[in-house]
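Here comes just one.
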Amino acid sequence: MVLLEHDVGGKLRALRKTRRLTLQGLAKKLKMTASYISRLERNLCRPSLPSLQSFANIFDVDIATFFERRVVESRPKRVLSPADQVEVIAHGGNLRIKPLAHILFKRPVLEVTRVSLKKGGEAVFPTRPGECLLIVQEGKIALVLGQERFRLNRGDSIYYTTEQYRKITNLGPKDAVYISVLYPPAYFK
């Protein structure tokens, strides 16, 4: 599942799929048409506030959920299966970030994600208090931390604070993949 930042339609779809509802099943519950819900999920039209409130009531979430950067689950499951994972596209499309630990709990302490960095892509991250462990799974990346430069290959890992300038660049001929363990959470907070 792919979710763009601040993507109301993607959040509707993610909530529907998390609850294993079909378009037709949800339409019946809401007394709407399946085609209308499908257009909303694909961001081809915008829902009214009363429609959003109806969705919020059915999914048992606050209406603000649709305007946050992530989907908030009211009663999350312990196991995060691939069908429940929501992918966020960030940094101008260069990063695809997928949670590996359940991000839907209120106030998660750690953010554990699998990140794909496009071939030739780079991302500059804002400085903020925190810590990160990065483990390269596929490819080669360059990491700039303040004035230091590191070249990381498959299997390499590095621990650092996030209070400094950080830039990651893919050096390989295909997408690079790394695991990020971030404290406090940044993308799914």
Q: What stands out?
A: Residues 1-5 have pLDDT under 50 and may be disordered.
